[in-house]
Design brief:
CATH superfamily: Class I glutamine amidotransferase (GATase) domain
Order of helices and strands: EHEEHEHEHEHEEEHHHH
CATH architecture: 3-Layer(aba) Sandwich
Structural class: alpha/beta
Largest sheet: 9 strands, mixed
CATH class: Alpha Beta
Number of helices: 9
Oligomer: single chain
Distance between the termini: 12 Å
Shape: globular
Length: 276
């Protein structure tokens, strides 16, 4: 039976990160329960300029990371753009699809690459457990349909995706599947929080891999604490910390999205192999 090859793209530029710990844990759990052998390889994209060869892997998960998602003239940026193009073009012509999940910084990079809207700096850094609302498309999307409305995810970002170009979405066959919470007292456009780029490519602005342990570690950083208190107020901040391990909030989101993506991708890959 085919061995499934999974590439994990670390976009943290050499910084220790709870997100990569979580992604590796989810990938390892997938490996231990998969119906076939799974090979996992990690690539230090920004720090070591490493990039997986598209032809060598079946599934790609690209992490969040710090900094400006707009081009700054780095070699890895061109390599990442090539990766996006190669996966997109491969899936147009091949029966043996490649699967890609994009998180936070990677989601922003891809949204800029495909010219989907305005990816700009927020007025203030956002950090916390946030309600996320499904669009009508998101209600039926395989990765989101089991989640509540709204569902909860960890938000950690200095940038945002607003003013989507809906004509571009239609032209490329992409769908917005989730938006940030409604803030009636603030006259700002709601940010895009998840996109179905194609049947094989999915991305989130939030962190579906996050767990309570990682949140607690991140709250040791003063910038994160201040951002969360600014978002919630002190009373709500304390309540959120207290409810961080609620099974119906970030734990449920963690159990649903990335594991289901990996499961679905592997099932399709093995099915395609049987047909071939």
């Amino acid at each position: 039976m085919k061995e499934i090859k999974l590439a994990l793209l670390d976009m943290n530029n050499g910084r220790a990160n709870q997100g990569m710990r979580n992604i590796k844990e989810i990938a390892q759990a997938f490996k231990e329960t998969a119906a076939t052998a799974v090979h996992i390889e990690v690539f230090e994209v920004r720090y070591e300029n490493e990039m997986p060869a598209v032809e060598d892997f079946d599934i790609f998960i690209s992490s969040g990371g710090p900094g400006n998602p707009h081009r700054e003239g780095m070699e890895w940026e061109e390599k990442f753009a090539d990766l996006l193009n190669q996966i997109w073009e491969h899936n147009k012509i091949s029966e043996n699809k490649k699967y890609l999940f994009l998180i936070c910084h990677s989601f922003q990079l891809a949204s800029i690459h495909w010219k989907l809207g305005n990816i700009c700096k927020r007025k203030s850094y956002s950090f916390g457990v946030m309600p996320i609302h499904k669009t009508s498309e998101g209600e039926t999307d395989f990765l989101l349909k089991n989640l509540a409305e709204p569902f909860y995810g960890v938000d950690s970002r200095a940038y945002q995706f607003i003013e989507p170009d809906l004509e571009k979405f239609q032209e490329l066959g992409m769908e917005i599947v989730a938006l940030e919470k409604v803030r009636p007292h603030i006259h700002l456009e709601r940010a895009v929080m998840a996109v179905r780029f194609s049947e094989e490519i999915f991305g989130t602005q939030f962190h579906p891999e996050a767990d309570p342990q990682g949140m607690i570690e991140n709250l040791k950083d003063e910038k994160n604490r201040e951002a969360m208190i600014e978002s919630y107020g002190m009373e709500k901040f304390l309540e959120t910390v207290d409810r961080m391990d609620d099974p119906d909030k970030i734990l449920f989101t963690r159990e649903q999205i990335l594991p289901r993506f990996l499961q679905q991708a592997s099932e399709q890959i093995l099915k395609e192999c049987e047909i071939a």
